[in-house]
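Q: A reviewer asked whether we had any structural model of the full assembly, not just the individual parts. We don't, so I'm hoping you can provide one. Inputs are below.
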Amino acid sequence: MIELENVSKSYSGGVKAVDTINIEIRDGEVFGFIGPNGAGKTTAIKLITGILTPDSGSIRINGISISDSPIEAKKQFGFVPDSPDMFLRLKGIEYLNFIADIYGVSPAERTERIRSLSERFDILPALGDQIQSYSHGMRQKIVIIGVLLHEPSVWILDEPMTGLDPKSSFTLKEMMREHAGKGKTVFFSTHILEVAEKICDRVAVINKGRIIFVGTLNEMRDHFRENESLEKMFLEMTEDE
Ligand SMILES: Nc1ncnc2c1ncn2[C@@H]1O[C@H](COP(=O)(O)OP(=O)(O)OP(=O)(O)O)[C@@H](O)[C@H]1O
Ligand SMILES: [Mg+2]
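A: Here is a predicted structure for the entire assembly that you could use as a starting point for your response.
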């Protein structure tokens, strides 16, 4: 569960990237965060994950405040950032062991999880190579596997399908549904409506830092005009007022 209460954040230039956001992402749901480029998705995610500090408002993950108890709160979630370019000099397997060390995953558990996740994402043969030799999609996969190693209850993913081939994208979506099916929480951002349509229980639409809709996709369809493609609705929702 993720709770945001009256969360705001401005950058030094004066841009109010996140403006008084209230959202509750419940256990057992895949929750999509939809909005056009520059809407404030990544900023909101950086606030939730403790990378940025809000100017005002409070954020709790599984009831734990990210500002009051950052380490405890961070143990609750796994985070896939929008850019997977990190630890490029490490080999895939070294990176995964490093992450497993940080989260205290036992050798027996990590061996099994690394093997099964790497097989599922078709990256097992590349684990012995340096991450800098990987394609964007392969880097994305290694980060996703690293995040899942400690089996966090809350998944937070920023544009996770970007760069994934159709098979891996399908696999990830399947895993997101499975995770929510176990009563856990999945929160991800996208500007691709088809992705949201396929897997989300509920969505929030953000534009210019403000939440302009929260609900199911059906409610979104009802709420906005009927018999129009979601994309058109979306354009309508996010165009200048
Ligand atoms: N470090 C920064 N300094 C100043 N302004 C920033 C910074 N990062 C983001 N912004 C601004 O904040 C707003 C929200 O940006 P953000 O990256 O959160 O959007 P986004 O919804 O993730 O967009 P995208 O779909 O392109 O990833 C934009 O106007 C952006 O220009
Ligand atoms: Mg972004």
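A: Points you may want to mention in the reply: The mean pLDDT is 91. The first strand starts at residue 2 and ends at 10.
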